[in-house]
Write a structure and sequence with these properties.
By secondary structure, the chain is mostly helical. It is 66% helix and 0% strand. The longest helix has 24 residues.
Length: 128
Amino acid sequence: MAEAHDGRKQTRAKLEALKPLKELKKEAQAAFNRYIRLRDRRAGHGCICCGAPLEWESSMPGGTKRDQFRAGMVARWGEAVVADLEGPHPTPHLKHDDYRQIRDTYKLKARALEKEAANDSTPFKQIA
């Protein structure tokens, strides 16, 4: 039984090592997006553009326009933060391990938020 478990672990490790950069980038982005959704839901935030309550279980974006999104970001985080995010920035040349680290970091952060919510009597703020 232990040998079968070790064999599965080795197979998983080999498959992880063979993942193309594109797939790792997609996984890192998905983990980051999930964390941001959980963080914003926990804080009671609504739509970044209009503030309306969101369907949190949906992963479909609301069809926002760039100027609406930017205005919502400025309202929530401030002009200085948004200007800093907008750049200019040098193009990062991330490698496989960089994307794995990003993915794993945000998976852990998301799990921590979920555990925190599970321990609270009111796990997520409801948006009126």
